[in-house]
């Protein structure tokens, strides 16, 4: 059954998802919204990209023991998976390359083939950084402003729980979160539509960050297991 599902995802379902995303972008352009979003939220886009890749680079540096040569080796191995995530907008589609990169970077075939598939849908660094940042900017622009700490902590709790229900396919991250944003952060339907549009536009970058983050997680987890085994 696993082989049948994998074949369906790789050959039938995943290849048509970029067409769905492209259609959504074309609709935004036809409605005259795309240019306005890009011009208004360019600083937010840059902030998300910088935050994601600085954070992920730090994880790889920690995994490499702050050795520049080892860091470059790790990134070189995982870069094809990141490119696949960017082009397909699906961490699931990039999973085979993520596993290959994890095997090279960790030298542990069994753990790599356990960790990467188990975390591909739930360990989404790109989503976890991007969605709250977009939500806060939209709230400050159209809503009641930044939430207080207690409200944001409750939102974060439900956000993390909902991550276990996310499918790593284009748009999957934000679709699961819309209900939480509306119930916990007071999003209106218009605000939900706006965050969905911004998320779809940034999905290639977000998914690439998800894939690279999963590669870093495999390295750090393998090192942790090795340390525990040595004890």
Automatic annotation (TrEMBL):
<dbReference type="InterPro" id="IPR036458">
    <property type="entry name" value="Na:dicarbo_symporter_sf"/>
</dbReference>
<keyword id="KW-0812">Transmembrane</keyword>
<feature type="transmembrane region" description="Helical">
    <location>
        <begin position="193"/>
        <end position="220"/>
    </location>
</feature>
<dbReference type="Pfam" id="PF00375">
    <property type="entry name" value="SDF"/>
</dbReference>
<protein>
    <recommendedName>
        <fullName>Sodium:dicarboxylate symporter</fullName>
    </recommendedName>
</protein>
<feature type="transmembrane region" description="Helical">
    <location>
        <begin position="40"/>
        <end position="66"/>
    </location>
</feature>
<keyword id="KW-0813">Transport</keyword>
<feature type="transmembrane region" description="Helical">
    <location>
        <begin position="122"/>
        <end position="143"/>
    </location>
</feature>
<keyword id="KW-1003">Cell membrane</keyword>
<feature type="transmembrane region" description="Helical">
    <location>
        <begin position="12"/>
        <end position="28"/>
    </location>
</feature>
<feature type="transmembrane region" description="Helical">
    <location>
        <begin position="78"/>
        <end position="102"/>
    </location>
</feature>
<dbReference type="GO" id="GO:0015293">
    <property type="term" value="F:symporter activity"/>
</dbReference>
<keyword id="KW-0472">Membrane</keyword>
<dbReference type="InterPro" id="IPR001991">
    <property type="entry name" value="Na-dicarboxylate_symporter"/>
</dbReference>
<feature type="transmembrane region" description="Helical">
    <location>
        <begin position="155"/>
        <end position="181"/>
    </location>
</feature>
<keyword id="KW-1133">Transmembrane helix</keyword>
<dbReference type="GO" id="GO:0005886">
    <property type="term" value="C:plasma membrane"/>
</dbReference>
